[in-house]
Amino acid sequence: MAKNIIFENTSEQRSKTMRAIRNKDTKIEMSLRRALYRKGLRYRKNYSRIFGHPDIAFTKSKIVVFCDSEFWHGESWEKSKRGMKNNIDYWNEKIERNKKRDLEVNARLNSEGYLVLRYWANRIEKNLAEVVSEIEKAIASRSK
User: Fold this and answer.
1) 32 and 131 in contact (C-beta within 8 Å)?
2) Which of 66, 48, 69 lies closest to 56 in space, CA to CA?
3) Where are the domains of the chain?
4) Per residue in 81-108, is it b (16+ CB within 10 Å) or e — as a string?
5) Of the candidates 94, 48, 138, which has an alpha carbon nearest to the alpha carbon of residue 102?
6) Going edge to edge, which strands form the sheet with 63-68?
7) What pLDDT sits at residue 86?
8) Domain 22-142: CATH class, spelled out
9) Residues 6+ apart with CB under 8 A from 48
10) Which residues pair with 56 in a beta bridge?
11) Beta-carbon contacts of residue 91 (< 8 Å; ≥ 6 apart)
12) pLDDT under 70 in the chain at which residues?
């Protein structure tokens, strides 16, 4: 006979869940990288020699690509935070800082001559061919 188990949402459980969230080699990154590789495009992944450790870097053409999840990078954040119930101050500070860091990374990379491309996860999932095409065009325009 199976027992009904009630799971409490304790801070230890939340902490364990948060530690399990990947910050590289995510499903969207892998999907985009596979598509780019099939097109014959070669890149560096999570390249630590470039500020901000871009998810994908085309070093010769100085193009970097970031695959941003909607939650962690604050897409529609004003709307999303209204639905939060726990640790509202923590999450607001965390996501606002992530958004600010993204802007700082973009500014620095632009000043170093990089073209920064950022894509939301849902756009990569729904329009992968379009995203790959945009990246191909950016590389072609930089190769002239």
Assistant:
1) yes
2) 66
3) 22-142
4) eeeeeeeeeeeeeebeebbeebeebbee
5) 94
6) 44-45, 56-58, 63-68, 115-120
7) 62
8) alpha beta
9) none
10) 45, 65
11) 81, 84
12) 1-11, 13-23, 71-88, 144
